[in-house]
Amino acid sequence: MFRNVFLCGFLLSPAISIAPAQDFLLGGPGFAEAFPIGPIVSVANLSAARDSQSNLYILSNGLTNNCVAVGSPPVGCVLQPASYLVKLNAAADTVLFQQNLPFLANAMTADPDGNIYLAAGNIVEKLASDGTQVLYKNTVGGPTLSLTAVALDSSGRLYLTGGVGAGDLPATAGSFRPTAPAGNGPFGFVMRLTTAGVTDYATYLGDAVQNPYGIAADASGAAFVIWSTNSTSFPATPPASANGASYLVRLSPDGSKLIYSTSPAQGDAWLLTADSGGHAAIALEAAYGSGITVIRYNPDGTVAFTRNVPGVTAGGLSTDAAGNIYLYDSLLPASANYPVKNTLSGCTGASNALTVYDPNGNLMQSTYLSNPGVPLGINVLTGPSVDLFAGETVTHLAQTPGAKTVPLACVGNAASYNSGIISPGELVSLFGNSLGPAAGTEPQVTLASGFPSELGGVKVTFNGIAAPLLYTQDNQINAIVPWELSPFSQVQMCAVYNGATPACTSFSISPASPGVFMLDQDHAVAVNQNGTLNTASNPAKVGDVVSIFATGLGALNPLPADGSIVRFPLPADILPVTMAAVSETGTLVPITVNYFGPAPYEVAGFSQINFTVDANAGGPYATYLSVGAPATAVQSNPFYINVAQ
């Protein structure tokens, strides 16, 4: 069974849209320095701050090699945690002091004078800038109180949040919720201390709030708090609705009432930042590491903008004095379509990214970063400049208009956005800056003409062989790898716009590099047996034959002309294609493939796979294509289809 499915919308439309913004570039010279972590083997989380002299304070938490035996007789041991406090100079190359704290501190911040605030259990300790003199040490609640986050406002007042059992919070009269909710907790709370460490106000948040993990404050003294919960009982102020995933609240400056409470549409909000004017921003992580969403809120709780990036872990979120928002995150394996602008490096070898949005959501800069390790934090300074923390290394970038950027940032499979290898006939997407015309250009194509090798002033070559072009635009080019390239060879790919200096990169050619075209983060573009699009509201039935679409399945016989439209009789795939779903036990369960090969009347390189739907095809675990002999097969990106239950 064959279907003529017109999918140019998936192939030709750009994956990203970058609005113009003011000139902004964080780059060199900068520095990258390792900082001491004492007995800690690897850093699990950290807090960081700078004082008015730019001295850097870092609190690292993690496990040590100290192993305490468990059981009698001992049957094993448990590695012990530790907290390590370090003060570095502005260049982070000189240790001014370091100490292994005698307690586990969950959070830390520092004020402009270098005074240090540590939160540990139910205790807040303020140290002088030498790290030894204790200015105050206060027990702020009963034994069930556990502090998770701290923040300072511009007046030097300290904001605390965390979880507490009923009766262990010294809630103040007139606060938003002075009495404990019913039950045992833990219940979320907010507390503010004066500059002398005295409780200014303390309030419970509600019975649906367990352990908030982010807090910030604006210049008015209004506190912002985030948490995740499975409950929808916490009130969301109009026009927001309660979805029971994550909540953001803004309290009045005196802590007596909610200014707003909002619940984002999806994902877990782990990071929070706020500017002096009362705008807040959060970073939400989608399930299974399938993307990060940044949402900026106006002071009244309405949404100013929402932006998405294909990241895995949001490691840092911060705001500068101008209201620009900085996101530091780790990358998905399929990250070729990360919306880079003025990137400092290509995607090859990159593990993290830094993205900066202006207050209106325009992309000011977004760059791949090769610093290894999971992002653990970000610290924005005036200038602006940023500290980025990963592992036990701090990388500093400063605003540098003359920093060298990379015009061709990444090349990936046009279906999966996986990068690193390409194969003959594969549809690929090139991402970067100044690659083509500002407005996207698509070719006029006929069965006879096929796709052109020049479009909108753009040419792409592979070892000098012109590639057919599907789409050209400033930030993205969609092209087809020439069929005549030999597997296991090296190839130089170059993109040229209006005769300018070529932007080039090199690749290894693989026999196959399969990618399945996706409708969203999880589901493949699939067509049901009746010719309709497969969706959650229009699922396939067990026993139906469903079609999905892919590229990078390898060579055809006979070899088609580059950019040609495939007609009958259809050429055949040389490499075998199989399909399997992951079972509950983790094994691969084969799915019956009825046809694999070129999609009729589509460009050569665009493939169609027809398969019979069984109980495994709809999940709950992912499905994969495999191309090649079993011993050397290459897998596609994971995907799901919707199957009626």
Structural summary, described in words:
Among the domains are: 408-509, Immunoglobulin-like (Sandwich); 516-635, no CATH class. 47% of the residues are buried. Helix content is 1%, strand content 45%. Strand 48 and strand 49 (634-635) form a beta hairpin. It contains one helix and 49 strands. The chain starts with 7 loop residues before the first helix and ends in a 10-residue tail after the last strand.
SSE diagram, text form:
Elements: H1 8-12, E1 26-34, E2 40-50, E3 56-70, E4 76-88, E5 95-100, E6 107-110, E7 116-120, E8 123-127, E9 134-139, E10 146-152, E11 158-164, E12 187-193, E13 199-206, E14 214-217, E15 223-228, E16 246-251, E17 258-262, E18 268-274, E19 280-285, E20 292-297, E21 303-309, E22 311-319, E23 325-331, E24 352-357, E25 363-369, E26 375-381, E27 385-390, E28 393-399, E29 408-413, E30 421-422, E31 427-432, E32 454-455, E33 458-462, E34 465-466, E35 469-472, E36 476-480, E37 490-497, E38 503-509, E39 515-516, E40 526-527, E41 545-551, E42 556-557, E43 572-573, E44 577-582, E45 588-591, E46 593-598, E47 606-612, E48 623-627, E49 634-635
Parallel strand pairs: 30-38
Antiparallel strand pairs: 1-28, 2-3, 3-4, 4-5, 6-7, 7-8, 8-9, 10-11, 11-12, 12-13, 14-15, 15-16, 16-17, 18-19, 19-20, 20-21, 22-23, 23-24, 24-25, 26-27, 27-28, 29-31, 31-36, 32-33, 33-34, 33-37, 35-36, 37-38, 39-41, 40-41, 41-47, 42-43, 44-45, 44-48, 46-47, 48-49
